[in-house]
Amino acid sequence: MSNPLIQAFFVGRAVAETLNQQVESALTNFMSELGKFDAEQRENLRQFTEQVLERARREEELSMQGRTSGYSSDYGSAPNQEQDLQAMIDDLRAEVAELRAELQRYRVNRSV
């Protein structure tokens, strides 16, 4: 290898191959870590979803237990329950009307 031009060619070729191997290795490691991260995040999301659904199911059961105990106590009070329901609807309508009036006052005061 007395010719410096030939020596430079082989050195350049070796540098390119080594660089290519390192880039390939880094890319492979990156893709592997990305795959692990994706799998972990999917598992975390699945666990979170399960926790939310379980909590919602428990809350629903607790809510239904409270309602069934209140409703099953006396079947003769159905007219009374209808009056209570109507009273609740009337209260909600009044509250909505009050909120609408308050919103209207806010809009008028804001535009002045």
From TrEMBL:
Disordered: annotated segments: 56-79
One Pfam family this sequence matches: DUF6825
Compositionally biased residues, Polar residues: 65-79
Lineage per the UniProt record: Bacteria, Bacillati, Cyanobacteriota, Cyanophyceae, Oscillatoriophycideae
Protein name: DUF6825 family protein
